[in-house]
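We emphasize that the prediction below concerns an isolated chain of 278 residues; any contacts that depend on oligomerization or on bound cofactors are therefore not represented. The input was used exactly as deposited, without trimming of termini.
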Amino acid sequence: MHAKVAVVTGAASGIGRALALGLARRGARLALADIDPGGLGETARRAGALGVEAHTWQVDVGDRAAVVSFAAEVEKHYGTVHQLYNNAGIAGGGVNILDAEWAVFERVLAVNLWGVLHTTKAFLPHLIDSGAGHLVNISSLNGLMAQAELGAYSTSKFGVRGFTEALRMEMVAAGHPVRVCVVHPGGVKTNIATATLAEAERIGRVVTAEYREQIRVYNERALRLSPDRAAEIILRGVEANRPRILVGGDARVVDVAVRLLPRVYPWLVGRAMRQAAR
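Result of the prediction step, given as a token string:
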């Protein structure tokens, strides 16, 4: 990855920041995007301290025009793009599908699914032109298995999985020099669940004490893998040209369960969730 140009979305925190720093340690030149300018600047500062070139763009990946402009600016600055890590995402959970407002689905799909489509379409010609492109789309454990009260999130992450696998087939059939990879992280210690709570409060939803406790328990018991470790697994998988990367023991268990126990696993998941909430 030395001297290659790598684009990372959602780079202000969590897995995105860890990916950026992992790439920096490998000598990549970085184009970092996020909607959070403060966190984005800190990621760039840390990457720069590792001796690599890192530039930032404040971009909402759900905004197609903004993404197209972003891709043009990155290409103008660096001249080429070798790798794209589509990591930006939000949860938007905590409410069942029956009660969810349309705005929840619209925003989650805009960022998690349309964001991946926007950036992929904008950067794919540059990846092809590089002669050694690599596209890495971050799905989720919920791209393998749906989950109650995460209807919008699960929809988006299954969509990312399907889109990525279709694109991989197209790149192979056309003989384009682009490797395409989908990543399914399990429980990683990021702020995505806490951010969901803040978003619920921002849009005026009633946030109960029970829901706050669910978020606290989820953060403590389900999110165990560090972002640095998750990023290292992803980057090693990219280096090995793996088309599919499972991050964490929970993702590997779910992957097996949904294929071997399709009728039983929903009950097992429900039971595990009830026990985790105690």
